[in-house]
Amino acid sequence: MSAEPTSPAPTDGSFVAAALSNRSFVAGLFITGLIAAMALVSFVWTPYDVTQLVVADRMKTPSAQHWFGTDHFGRDILAMIMVGARNSIAVAVVAVGIGMGIGVPLGCWAAARGGFVDEALMRFNDLVFAFPALLSAVLITAIFGPGAINAIIAIGIFNIPVFARVARAGALSVWPREYILAARAAGKGKVLITIEHILPNIASILLVQGTIQFALGILAEAGLSYLGLGTQPPMPSWGRMLFDAQTRMMVAPHLALFPGFAIIVTVLGLNLLGDGLRDVLDPRLRRER
Amino acid sequence: MALIEIEKLSLSIGRVPILKSIDLTIGAGETMGLVGESGSGKSMTALTLMRLLPDAARATGRVTFDGIDILAAPEAAMCRLRGNDIGMVFQEPMTALNPVKTIGEQVAEGIRWHTGANRADAEASARRMLERVGLPEAKFPLTRYPHQLSGGQRQRVVIAIACALKPKLLVADEPTTALDVVLQKQILDLLRGLVAEDRMGLLLISHDLAVVTDMADRITVMRHGEVMEEGETAQTLSAQVHPYTRQLAEASMHVPARPNRHAAQAGGDNLLEVDAVVRDYPGRRRALFAPAEKFRAVDHVSFSMKPGQSVALVGRSGCGKSTLARMILALDRPTGGDIRFLGASLTSKSEAELKPYRRNMQVVFQDPYGSFNPRHKVERLVAEPLHLLDSQPSPAERREMVAEALHEVGLRAPDMDKYPHEFSGGQRQRISIARAIITRPKLVVADEPVSALDVSIRAQVLDLFAELNQKLGVAYLFITHDLTVARAITDEVMVMHDGRIVETGRTDAVLDDPQSEAARDLVAAAPDLKRAIRRRLHEQG
Amino acid sequence: MIPFLARRLLTGLATLLLASVVVFAVLEILPGDPALLMLGMNASPEALATLREQLGLNDPVMVRYVSWILGLLTGDFGRSFTYSSPVIDLIAERAVVSLPLAVISLLLSTAIAIPVGIFAAARRGKAADTLSMGAAQVGVAVPNFWFALILVYIFAVWLQLVPAGGFPGWKAGLWPGLKALILPSVALALPQAAILARVTRSAMLEVLGEDYIRTARAKGMPRRHVLWRHALRNAMIPVLTILGLQFAFLLAGTIIIENVFYLPGLGRLVFQAITQRDLIVVEGVVMLLVASVIFVNIVVDICYALVDPRLRSNA
């Protein structure tokens, strides 16, 4: 009776202020921005050419010339990590895009329609979740052959039920609100209500889920490439670099160190960004602070 | 010596001051009523007594309970005090009990903790206590879980927990606000009985002056974290020395002026006709393949309304009144029967065919916080029903119409560029009404439109409803469990019980002389400030 | 409880049946003729035709599907042509590596994560909370196969405490077998533990803000008591969900981890079978993994019902 319930943050100036005072968000944004910038820069400049093999410089430890050392073909590891970032980000972006683009409309549809459609979607979700994601990705890439495109599809398909579920749960919690009833009393149909009222109110949870899936996508791409099913050589990829490093662990442990750090830092940055976004966008959690 | 003595208690959370130099005393066995509107600091005062304040809260001053300095006592001492010497009952019975523990465990837990009794003994006392609060073993075994009980029953369990060890002081924070009037009366009677039997002190916190007057020996009126007035209940309320006390009392009994109340309805066609409407819901399945049992929420309801008429639909919670309202608004389809609006049947129309009817039929909801999309500005919110017009207004016309509607509900045109969270509860309800009248409807259905508002705000919003009824000739269907609202604003009343309408008639006639049992229960349970003051004065001679 | 269980079993079976259709269909469209692969490129057309007939590849799709399903039900998973032995034997041989690996990892991650999560929630905002959740934040970001490489370098190459890879077989004794599984299970478990610890903490914090926690405190229960007796059980509901998901994740994780450590487990078996187009093995192992995921999810749902009485009464 005493305190009035806090209403969700409106998307105006106060959002930026709140976001910039959130440590997780700022750190995550900084790291993610750094990795993205690195990937962009790699299009126009890398310290060395990643396709150039210099046998004389094989497996050099980090030095002033090669900050992160060189690999077993004498390629510069920093350059490979920069170009590899491109790959990881592209795969993850498209995979999240596929998941969101198909999953969110499906989830909203199921929530709006209910009944049979809803039941069918839930059973479909059960079905997809029954296949361990990586196993199915291995299957898909095995069917269509290894490669970055197929890795994207494999990871993307498993993002569909994730987003469908999140969108459905969010939409179901918004539908019984009184403002939806008011909109219905104003003669608005399900599609219009979904666009005007449901989507803006579940956008924040979708955004947060998006960063999580983005991070998982990077991990999955690295895993597939490590198994030799993702990005194919000579295109450098972080997972592949780790695979190459494995057999040379005894002589050149630094080969494994830097690609690993690249993955960890990227995923960490995305997770921090997601946590920060959640805190900023979910007023319930913010109030606790 | 007083049981509890609060001297110059100030409290702040972060940098926000909540309480400012509060003084309050409660004697042993005395009932103190603490009244005030939202944000007056009543609940925080109660939580200070229990020392269950949020981590960020800082309290200064002195709070003494039975010689113990509450603000300075070590946590272990407070644990010995809580539940043993001070019990507390909360507002929301639906969430106050742990869903994964049986009611027996939850009542016995405190007993075992404080007395060191073994499980069997503690359960025996828990059983006796539950029996005392009206949950006999035969119907409510200790192994029941909270979700198997109704709201009123759960509140009884919370009371059993609070009173299990016969505390010297019981703190009840809005114990009946979440319940309907009939349950409210039962719970208040229960509290009164327990307090008298066990000679407990009671701190009863409520926003409802009538409830407090009924229950309390003395009363403390709070506002904005300060004590406005304190004194013997009947005297304080009949003398009304302090202007704020007078304001509260007047607002509680407020009846809006409606000079030409029966002008609109003498003859003519019916605006709305509800004919033998039935609504069934699929109930719980008993077995895997057994057909679901049907639950009949609305059972053959028939009535009609004239243009401009103001009708109340009253009943206890769960009687089917909101379901009926939704069917009238064509937000839900009846299982059987027919609803005709402006002479046409609504029940079989498609969404497109409903458009011209929806334009003439709008809605105001109870919750001023939940009824707006938090991400839209007021202009867009109020303009939403304009979607129903045949020709869409230009942006400029739209702003004009929104400005006009806001003006009619007492808000300013520039308010349309704000977000709903920038308004208070009462202002939001005004925005809600502006949205409902922007298409100039002939009927507005209002589902508990003032029950979430403080009394003074409630009086203003009722005035607004009355004014619009006079000015625009709009008919109202008021859905409420609060008879004072029905009496204040409606000409006719329908009493609904278990899905049926059991009594109809002129509002005054039904409320003064109810015929059906359901109506009599409602009338008898409804808190009435005048009556309560009269009784208090009479008791004192 | 009984209707709830029955319903859950039915949907589980339906999902399994659907999954079998999907697995079968996917492998139907997989390029490559198994008969050709078995006999090699130089096989004569007559030999190919005979083998096709023997394998039943000429039967209509429906017939093959039904006979495959009936086979699965009677434990006949078919015969691998690359290993020339029954698939069921291969699975049995490999499961004794994968199953202990998955179970040890799950236990390990649970044993670490839940106490850490509870501890962090109880000391919210204190140094212990910040430190453990910072570590968890990093842990979530670590790919398990990279972590595995680092573990190998430290414990096998540098300290030489455990073997770097391979599996001596349980015949060599319990300890040598377990020793070979230590690093793989740690590598699998720690990143999962990081996720679980974060979920446990936030579930605990959520529950600690509920009204019934205040009711319990108003009864005079001390904070610690309330944490263990009232909050924990309610907080277990989201934690169980994550545990169920993690089991599937661990199963998939074995594919990579078994490759890192050269462990002869199911993950490695299926991976090799896919690259060698040994379809019958792939089908068998995938169905087995899917069935175990579904089974674990049913177990999780039963645990839900044990924790939450609301699920027991209305199905």
From TrEMBL, chain A:
One of its GO terms (cellular component) is plasma membrane. Residues 85-274 form the ABC transmembrane type-1 domain. GO terms for biological process: transmembrane transport. It comes from the Bacteria. It is found in: Cell membrane. Keywords: Cell membrane, Membrane, Transmembrane, Transmembrane helix, Transport. The chain crosses the membrane at residues 25-45, 89-112, 124-143, 205-229, 249-274. The keyword rRNA processing does not apply. Gene3D superfamilies: MetI-like. The keyword tRNA-binding does not apply. Belongs to the binding-protein-dependent transport system permease family. This is ABC transporter permease. It comes from Aquibium carbonis.
From TrEMBL, chain B:
It holds the Pfam family ABC_tran. InterPro entries: AAA+_ATPase, ABC_transp_ATP-bind, ABC_transporter-like_ATP-bd, ABC_transporter-like_CS, P-loop_NTPase. Residues 4-249, 272-523 form the ABC transporter domain. One of its GO terms (biological process) is transmembrane transport. It comes from the Bacteria. Keywords: ATP-binding, Nucleotide-binding, Transport. SUPFAM superfamilies: P-loop containing nucleoside triphosphate hydrolases (SSF52540). GO terms for molecular function: ATP binding; ATP hydrolysis activity. Belongs to the ABC transporter superfamily. This is ABC transporter ATP-binding protein. It comes from Aquibium carbonis.
UniProtKB/TrEMBL annotation, chain C:
Keywords: Cell membrane, Membrane, Transmembrane, Transmembrane helix, Transport. The keyword Transmembrane applies. InterPro entries: BPD_transp_1_N, MetI-like, MetI-like_sf. The chain crosses the membrane at residues 99-122, 134-161, 181-199, 231-257, 285-307. It is a multi-pass membrane protein. It holds the Pfam family BPD_transp_1. Residues 95-298 form the ABC transmembrane type-1 domain. It comes from the Bacteria. GO terms for cellular component: plasma membrane. It is found in: Cell membrane. GO terms for molecular function: dipeptide transmembrane transporter activity. Belongs to the binding-protein-dependent transport system permease family. This is ABC transporter permease.
